[in-house]
């Protein structure tokens, strides 16, 4: 059974930082691209960041590029999202996900991912 558990969310003031972790069990992620998405109240789930299976390629949404980064530690079967310079509009539930296919580079569509975590809440106060 594949499980993804996100952690590291919380309440932070605007301009602050958080680091989200996504620990995966039941599936070695070393051959899979990984992604982070978010969903704000009343909105659809949107792409935030992705990292290729080999870790050398990453892609971030325009809204977070330059402020955030994505990384992975395949030995720990974990993916991270470092979020700096947080803004109130970053408030959302953040989800990590595993690519539905192996050995792909970065993928951005929700339909490209098979397994999802339960999400972690990030709230940024102004």
Descriptive overview:
- The chain has 126 residues and is an all-beta fold.
- The chain is 0% helix and 53% strand.
- The chain is built from no helices and eleven strands.
- The chain has strands spanning 3-7, 10-13, 18-25, 32-39, 46-51, 58-60, 68-73, 78-83, 92-102, 113-116, 120-125.
- Strands 2, 4, 5, 6, 9, 10 and 11 form a seven-stranded mixed sheet that branches.
- Strand 5 and strand 6 (58-60) form a beta hairpin.
- It starts with a strand and ends with a strand.
- 36% of the residues are buried.
- The model has no long low-confidence stretch (mean pLDDT 97).
What is the gist of this entry?
By secondary structure, this protein is an all-beta fold.
The amount of beta strand, in percent, is over 45%
Largest sheet: 7 strands, mixed
Query: What percentage of residues falls in helices of 4 or more residues?
Result: under 10%
Question: For the CA atoms, what is the radius of gyration?
Answer: 13 Å
Q: What is the chain-wise order of helices and strands?
A: EEEEEEEEEEE
How many individual helices? 0
Give the overall shape.
globular
Mean pLDDT: 97
What structural category arises from helix and sheet content? mainly beta
Unreliable spans are: none
**Straight-line distance between termini:** 40 Å
């Amino acid at each position: 059974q594949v499980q993804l558990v996100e952690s590291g969310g919380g309440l932070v003031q605007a301009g602050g930082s958080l680091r989200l972790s996504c620990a995966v069990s039941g599936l070695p992620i070393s051959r899979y691209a990984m992604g982070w998405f978010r969903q704000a109240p009343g909105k659809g789930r949107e792409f935030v960041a992705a990292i290729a299976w080999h870790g050398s390629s990453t892609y971030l949404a325009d809204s977070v590029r330059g402020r955030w980064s994505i990384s992975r530690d395949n030995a720990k079967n974990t993916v991270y999202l470092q979020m700096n310079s947080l803004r109130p509009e970053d408030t959302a539930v953040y989800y990590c996900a595993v690519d539905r296919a192996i050995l792909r580079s970065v993928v951005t569509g929700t339909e490209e991912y098979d397994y999802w975590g339960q999400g972690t809440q990030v709230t940024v106060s102004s």
